[in-house]
Every structure is written in structure tokens, then in C-alpha cells.
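Sample 3 of the quickstart, ligand pyridoxal-5'-phosphate:
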Amino acid sequence: MSDKPHSFDTLAVHAGAAPDPATGARITPIYQTTAFAFNDADHAARLFGLQEFGNIYTRIMNPTQDVLEKRVAALEGGTAALAAASGHGAQLLVLHNLMQPGTEIIAARQLYGGSVNQLGHSIKNFGWSVKWADVEDPASFEALVNDNTRAIFIESIANPAGLVTDIEAIARVAEQAGVPLIVDNTMATPYLCRPFDHGANIITHSLTKFLGGHGNSMGGILIDGGNFDWMASDKFPMLSQPNDSYHGMVIGDVFGEAFGHIAFAIAARVLSLRDLGPCIAPMNAFLILNGIETLPLRMQRHCENALTVAKWLDADDRIDWVSYAGLPGSANNALAQKYTPKGPGSVFSFGLKDGFESGKKLVNNVKLFTHLANLGDTRSLIIHPASTTHSQLDEDALKKAGAGPEVIRVSVGIEDASDLIADIDQALG
Ligand SMILES: *Cc1c(COP(=O)(O)O)cnc(C)c1O
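Result:
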């Protein structure tokens, strides 16, 4: 056997997994149990004291979840990962590790609608707040940095227009500010874009989307880049200060010292997940792991189909504009070639000439596309963001988020592209 590191496609099938040591089962079993027996009293004490890692209780750790975490960490090139019940659950765990009452996050305003809600409304209850920047203008992030800033949050491919983000430019702003850059890599997946290679410090995913890939399970994950110095300032007390709830157990009680390049992922597990509780179900971890095995094959087909459909729309009279970074004429195409050379995913938006009414007609008349609020399924999906995912925004915010009344968002699946085109053609009437 050579020591050559395995390539991405091999890791997608194998990383983190081995035949089950107890039974020889080749596929990672669904460890459908809440708790795990200790070997003896000393073993139990070592596990609780974090002197030894091991299974205690499924809220904190489970062997099926563990394989999923190792696989996604390997695909992203991170040091460690922590799965959660949903993408939003993972985002909450990340923020909980970083923020204190009175602190702020700077986020791109072009985000998944649910993230606009989470950051714009719900986090206020924790005493945290958001400032919105424009993903197409890295200087707009810089202008919002102050002493209370604790993180910058962007999507690698931004919702809903499918814009590829200049991650390196925004990473420089974060580095200058001494705060981590969090990249939601859901729309790209690590197959198309690897944010740690461009300066990200923490990655989040909704596993619900392309990674699981089949629209059957909710899940989320955070990945630690192992490349941020938590001890460099007093901004992140969860990592740099002694933690009372592990008093006397962790070396020096300080996570940033004791766990070095995996400190963020460990603290997210044994502090934030332990106490907030959004753990992933073993069954969902299993289904998502199976999905990930075919991620490279699916993403190739998703991208090919998206480009074919986008080109057809672009040439059609009934369509006003198409925002797909993969189109050679797109203003965003240069960033797409840099950050997503295999293709900028399969979620993009387009505008109908006749605006709101023809948008409603289109989503009502499609037969093969499904009208629903999801993306990253093998099936093709369509939605009218202004009346659904982004309906809480006012007209100005809708426009700024790229979700005006004439906008339709599609998530192009892995069916035959000519069938997808025929379906849109008949639905446009
Ligand atoms: C779906 C999604 C989320 C939220 O994930 P859930 O699994 O639905 O909680 C976050 N970001 C992006 C880009 C998404 O598409």
C-alpha cells in the first residue's frame, strides 16, 4: 500500500468507515441506541473528564454520527467536525461558541431565507445581533467591523441567485478583524468548492441538501478548519478562558489550550451541543452517509444539467434574465472559474418578463419540477422566493437579497435535461 493520500472521490466512499469491529458489517451500522455501557468506573470517569474520548450518550456522540463527521471533515480538509440535527442547528452551535451578549456577527445579506431569519430575528433573544453586508462588495464587510464583531458569515455560493462569493477577499477582512470567517458551503459542497483552501476558519452545511442528496433526511454539520488562534485575544472566552462546567477536568480548563487545532469542534460538542441539544438521529446520519458516497457523480450531473437548462432559458424570449454563474456571459463567471472550476452548482434564479403573475403560473403548471421549499435533491425543484422562502422581507430587502417579485429559483436535479426543459417550456405556456 502506498502512502499517497486518497483522492476526493475515494474519500467520499471510504473516509471514516471500516467494517464494524463487533460484527464485520461492511456498511456503517445504524447505532440506534441512546446510551453506551462503560467498561468500569474508571473508564466512565475518564470519559466524563474528557481524558479519553468515547461514547457516553447519543446527544453528545454516537458511532454512526462519528463516521459521518470524519467523512465530511476529510472531504472539506478540516481537522474535525460535529454533526447536528439540521443546518440551522449546526449554525446555532457555531454562534453559541463564538458569541456573548452584546456581540455582533457580520453576514452577507444574500443568504438562505432561513438564515436571514435566524440571524436577523431569533438570535436577538441571546443578546447577539447581525449587521448586513453585500456579498458582492468585500469592502462593505470591512466597513462594519468594530470591537464587538465576533465572526463573519457568508455562503460560498449565495442564495438565491447562485452568486459565487469572493471568499479570499472576505477572508482577508476577517483576518484583519481577528475574527473567524464562517462559510456555509451547502450550495457548493466540498466537491465543487473547498473554503478552507481560501481562508475560511469554520464551515457549516445543511446536510439536508446535496450532501445527503436525496431529500430524505434533515442534518447539519460544522467543520473546524484548525487554523484560527483562539488564544490570540480575549474575544472568545468559551475557548480562551477556563470553563466552569469542566472545572479541574480539562488541562488548565481552557479548551483553546487543551485541544489546539480541534478546540472549536470539541467545545462545540461538549459545551454547545451538550447543553443546547440539537443532535442528529443515527438513522439520518446513516442515510446521509449513503448519500455522500455518490456525491461526486451527482454533483457532476447536477452541474451539467444546470448549465444546459440555464442556456436554454437564456435563449428564450419569455425569460428576462438568467443568473447562473456558469453561463460564460455572467458577470460572476470569473469568480465561478476561480472558486468552483467544476461548475457553480445547480441552484440559480431567473426573471420572467411578465413578473409576479407569470411566476405563479410557472410554478403552478410544472409537472416534473416539484414546487417546494428545498434544494439539492436528485429531483428538480422550483420555487418563487418572494412569496415563500423570502416572504418575510420587505420589497427593498427582497430586491437586495436577489429575490424580487419576478424571480424564480430552481434546483436542477439529475434527471434527463431535455425532459426538464420540455417541462419548463410547457409550463411557461
Ligand atoms: C437549507 C439550508 C440551510 C438550513 O439547513 P436546514 O438543514 O434546513 O436547517 C442553511 N443554509 C443553506 C444554504 C441552506 O440551503
